[in-house]
Design brief:
By secondary structure, the protein is α/β, with parallel strands linked by helices. The chain has 20 helices and eleven strands. Helix 9 crosses helix 10.
Length: 539
């Protein structure tokens, strides 16, 4: 099975937010969820010469009318089936060329969910929750549920749209590289052997993963699921929604989609909000190190809060918290912990911790998970990892992680030089010692080094001109997309930066009034916050 890095930029998982809410009553009052992609190359077809222009050869796709109906058949999980049964939502499928260079060939069908505007309608607001690989259809209902900060002016004035990008969620053809049984084997695979034989074994697993993806998904699909293609889909969606210009909210990787759309279709932009933004100028190695540092910073902040109490499973000295976690987790390498009829592996434990580090409101839950681990109970850590990897209650897996891998392999730099791989592995481990197995850095080439199709993107800041005012939101303690990434993206796009003090990944519409009021005013009235505006994350 392929090796995996236990962190990736994405919108906070819906399941984690719900789990945190459910755990509030159980946790005593106390202090408080791969890689970042790079900007896409310009499309081979020229950008539209004027607002709303249709690229040649794509007329039938731009002219399509969406046929809206019940959402039940689009649900991929029991949770979605329950939510999608609400008659406030209707769904449709958007047809797009699988290969934009051959629009008369095979097509893809993309799932689209709509929450209809309840008041005087401005237009449509398209939401992307990040990943890459996270379902937009599943993300919209909890973000805009009654009583949330998303419910109000936005649901009154906009049709809120969730799109499942190509290969993701309800969209077809789907990205599906592993069976559910193979996923369980993958989770038990340690990938901690730093010896030449261990490195060779891990590389063979990664090569096999790439081969399986090519066989099961198909090279044509693998070659056409990157950001380059999804931004074109966004413009087809804009036209199919009968919107002259796009209004868009993108989290994490969704910020990359938004900035690339701004480069490809600058005259078709009404408003863009990009939250948890990716640094457009970073190379893949720079991104990996920056993100490792970000998660270690989040671990240290969690440890400082936890160790202030005598009950903390990491002790009372924050400087010794990393070692304390290593002492709790490393025994799992030789002896996984039984959890009912399942087991908690060492990679599961590290991934579960990383999942909770995405947002500070999950830290009390993380503390309870580590208390459990210290007592020989891995239930909560296993659940956190299940949420991260998209394992459902019935034991099946969503394709979120596979889509993340597949899209990343055409969006990222290929790192194939063994010397560069070895240096990067050592630097990454030094940057995030809470992940250190004590067995040394495993200098294995990742799955993308064996990928059967070429990258479709190259690293560079977006070249935007003629954009209306846009808004980038960046949080100072964001572990997955560190604060400076948002600063750099705002500078590259000439966007207004909204600074947020806090420790979380993705803050828009999560209940911080200062942020939500500014974003809503911008999306509704196109009023950007004043230069230098700063907010603080509400508890």
């Amino acid at each position: 099975m392929p090796s995996r890095r236990p962190s990736r930029p994405r919108r906070r998982p819906r399941g984690l937010t719900l789990l945190v809410a459910a755990a509030v009553a159980l946790v005593p009052a106390c202090g408080q969820t791969a890689g970042t992609p790079i900007p896409a190359v310009p499309s081979p077809s020229p950008a539209p010469p004027s607002a709303g222009a249709v690229p040649p050869g794509l007329e039938r796709f731009y002219a399509q009318e969406l046929s809206w109906g019940p959402c039940a058949s689009f649900a991929a999980s029991e949770e979605d089936r329950v939510v999608f049964s609400d008659d406030r939502y209707d769904c449709s499928r958007l047809e797009v060329p699988l290969n934009y260079a051959a629009p008369d060939g095979r097509t893809a069908q993309l799932g689209v969910l709509r929450l209809r505007a309840s008041g005087q309608r401005i237009g449509a607001l398209v939401v992307n929750p990040g990943g890459p690989g996270v379902s937009g259809m599943s993300a919209v209902p909890p973000l805009f549920a009654p009583g949330t900060s998303g419910d109000g002016p936005l649901t009154q004035r906009f049709d809120v749209i969730g799109l499942d990008p190509r290969g993701v969620g309800a969209s077809t053809p789907a990205i599906d590289c592993l069976t559910d049984a193979e996923w369980e084997v993958e989770r038990a695979d340690l990938d901690v052997d730093a010896s030449p034989a261990g490195v060779a074994a891990t590389e063979e697993e990664n090569r096999l993963y790439a081969q399986r993806c090519a066989e099961r998904v198909g090279p044509e699909v693998l070659a056409n699921v990157g950001t380059r293609d999804t931004v074109r889909d966004l413009d087809v969606l804009r036209a199919a929604l009968d919107e002259p210009k796009l209004t868009y909210l993108g989290y994490s990787y969704g910020s990359r989609l938004g900035s690339t759309y701004a480069e490809e279709f600058p005259l078709n932009v009404r408003a863009l909000v990009l939250d948890g933004a990716l640094d457009p100028g970073q190379t893949t190695p720079e991104r990996i190190i920056a993100q490792a540092q970000g998660f270690q910073q989040a671990f240290d902040a969690f440890a400082a809060t936890c160790t202030s109490r005598s009950t903390c499973p990491l002790g009372t000295d924050p400087a010794a918290a990393v070692q304390a976690f290593q002492e709790l987790s490393r025994p799992l390498i030789d002896q996984p912990l039984g959890v009912g009829d399942r087991t908690l592996s060492y990679p599961d434990a590290v991934t579960g911790v990383t999942q909770a580090l995405y947002l500070s409101e999950a830290w009390p839950l993380l503390e309870q998970a580590l208390v459990g681990l210290a007592d020989g109970d891995g239930t909560l850590l296993l659940l956190l990892t299940d949420l991260y990897l998209g394992r459902r209650g019935d034991g099946t897996y969503s394709n979120e992680t596979e889509a993340f891998d597949v899209i990343g392999c055409v969006d990222e730099d290929r790192i194939t030089d063994p010397a560069v791989v070895a240096d990067l592995a050592a630097r990454e481990l030094a940057a995030a010692p809470y992940r250190d197995s004590g067995r040394g850095a495993v200098a294995a080439r990742d799955k993308c080094a064996f990928w059967p199709v070429s990258p479709t993107s190259t690293p560079r800041p977006p070249q935007t001109s003629g954009l209306p005012p846009t808004l980038v939101v960046s949080t100072t303690g964001d572990p997955a997309t560190p604060y400076h990434a948002g600063v750099n993206l705002a500078a590259a796009m000439g966007a207004r930066l909204l600074r947020v003090e806090g420790d979380t990944h993705g803050v828009v519409l999560t209940g911080t009034a200062c942020v939500d009021d500014a974003v809503i005013a911008y999306l509704v009235d196109l009023t950007v916050p004043a230069e230098g505006t700063s907010c603080r994350l509400d508890p």
